[in-house]
Design goal:
Layout lengths: L1 E10 L2 E2 L1 H9 L5 E4 L9 E4 L7 H13 L11 E6 L8 H11 L6 E4 L5 H14 L5 E8 L3 H9 L20 E2 L1 E9 L8 E10 L12 H9 L8 E5 L6 H13 L7 E2 L2 H4 L6 H14 L2 E2 L21 E2 L4 E8 L3 E9 L2
Parallel strand pairs: 4-8, 5-6, 5-7, 11-12, 11-15
Antiparallel strand pairs: 1-2, 1-9, 1-10, 3-4, 7-9, 10-16, 13-14, 15-16
Helix pairs in contact: 1-9, 2-3, 4-9, 6-7
């Protein structure tokens, strides 16, 4: 089995997974309006670091904090690095990620996962698959992206950015906000699991080949991912953490997929109102925050939501709610028709 032994988040909300969870649970966000940023003609809303960060250095910092005290020698040939990003440094995804493994003296090289917005979940699935080959004992999964004029102008050209704070699943949603962060998870292959540890249950990746930027209206790819992680049923789930970008078509698509999977009554949420869309970091960061939420028996509120207004109803709220269940599903979708889901369960 694959278990998570450590994690870490570095975001504009703070350093460390626990600090990030506490601030999110209090409803805090660093989403702000940015005027005349780096020559861009239009203002935009995003959660950004107060000082410019370097991709590789931020990844290293996130990994070092996750590694601290967990007894893993990152230079070992039994340790594999998996990096999730959509841009890296100046579009050099491999070379910028290679700096990370060189810092730790790891000779295995690095697997770079870049599958649009699903990258952070795909990276977890890739790491689990590699661990299950038996070649590696430990995988260090790092997700990170830094916003640049290249990225922001690209989203602006799609008319995808909201001119206000994002409102996932809301009937008056106007588009997404961006964000930047780094998050790391240390995964290990083991025969035993202790109380309080998280077990990787299943993962699924599907491409519905619908459109370069528009999701399938039927939610076909997302539905197939949910079916991949069904694992005999969803009875032990506390909630499903959706992508919830607050774009019109993404949220509608997810509402269709959730209902087609028989999860119309299951509590769902989105974390984009706290962090914005952190792209390559999103799948890792939002998985860690979801783990913390289950440990505290709550479904975090969807910040920005006022009234649910998706094509199919979803059980979302802007307030924190108590919950039972020992696990969750993290669902993501992205450009090019990509979809991915991962399921985690805590031993209690």
């Amino acid at each position: 089995m694959i278990i998570k032994v450590s994690d870490n988040i570095i975001s504009p909300l703070g350093v460390g997974s626990e600090e990030n969870f506490i601030r999110v649970s209090k409803g805090e966000s660093m989403l702000r309006r940015h005027e005349d940023a780096e020559g861009l003609l239009q203002p935009y809303y995003a959660s950004l670091f107060t000082e410019r960060r370097v991709f590789s250095e931020l990844c290293i910092e996130a990994a070092e904090e996750a590694l601290w005290g967990c007894g893993v020698d990152a230079s070992s040939d039994k340790v594999l690095f998996v990096v999730s990003t959509t841009k890296g440094e100046d579009l050099e995804l491999y070379h910028s990620s290679e700096k990370i493994v060189k810092h730790f003296g790891n000779k295995n090289g690095v697997i770079v996962v870049s599958n649009a917005c699903t990258s952070g979940v795909c990276a977890q699935i890739t790491a689990a698959r590699m661990l299950n080959t038996g070649k590696y004992d430990t995988a260090i999964v790092v997700g990170c992206d830094i916003q640049t004029p290249f990225i922001v102008s690209g989203f602006q050209s799609f008319k995808a950015l909201s001119d206000e704070l994002c409102r996932p699943f809301d009937g008056a949603r106007r588009g997404l906000n961006l964000g930047e962060a780094a998050a790391a998870m240390i995964l290990r292959r083991t025969d035993d699991i202790e109380e309080g540890q998280w077990e990787y249950v299943a993962g699924g990746i599907h491409n519905d080949a619908n459109h370069i930027s528009g999701p399938s209206r039927t939610g076909e790819g997302a539905l197939r991912c949910l079916n991949d992680v069904r694992n005999g049923g969803f009875g032990d789930l506390a909630f499903v953490n959706l992508h919830g970008t607050a774009s019109l078509y993404n949220d509608d698509m997810e509402s269709v997929a959730i209902n087609r999977a028989g999860l119309g009554e299951m509590p769902v949420n989105s974390l984009k109102g706290y962090y914005g869309h952190t792209m390559g970091a999103a799948g890792v960061l939002e998985t860690i925050i979801s783990m913390k939420a289950v440990e505290h028996n709550i479904v975090l509120g969807t910040r920005g939501l006022v009234t649910v207004g998706t094509v199919e109803n979803v059980n979302a709220s802007n307030e924190n709610r108590s919950c039972g269940g020992n696990g969750f599903v993290k669902l993501l979708s992205g450009f090019g028709g990509s979809n991915a889901a991962v399921r985690w369960r805590i031993k209690r």
